[in-house]
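Fold it.
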Amino acid sequence: MMTSRLAAFFRAIGASLLPATAGLAVVLLAAGDAAFADQQPDWIGSLTSGKGPGNFAAPPPMRLAYRFGWSGIQAATADIHFFSPTRNTFEVDAAGATSGFPRALFRLDVYHQATENKNTLRPIHFFQEEKYRHETVKTNVDFEPDYVMGLREKIPSDRPSKPNFFKFNPIFDMTTALLWVRSQPLADGDTESIVVWASNAPYLATVKVLGR
């Protein structure tokens, strides 16, 4: 489920943020994979994120509006606002909801707010709230220099929430992943492989430039 959501996110706003047609592969990483002791997992060697952001300038402030559906039937809407509130940060405010007849079957309202470092294209914090018919899910994620800490709370719940730690660096959220890939030269056939924290888990995302 989360893999398909991450892929859908890249497809939805990638056309506005990425300057090239790209293919995407996403793999869930176990929470303990990066806390290795004796040897590194195989996926470490495939990463390209150690080189830092490229020289391609970040996009200007924008507001993106989407309608989702099939066969002429609208099923959901989304509004994404990307801007720079301070000299050193980007911010993304996004809201979405199911609509029309599909909303009667699956009620969902989503809000996502993320703060990013403008110079390093690394995430600082994001908050996400998902309101379903019978429960609300809140996710808070803090990005520290050498680890990520995510806390996912379900309301109502009879179990206390436990933080999810992933000791690794660098890790991107979905917004900075797009911005970082976009900043690279991206010649035809180039591949970028990075670790992306989506919802409350880390994923290995590999993007290949198919053509311009």
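The chain has one domain: 2-211.
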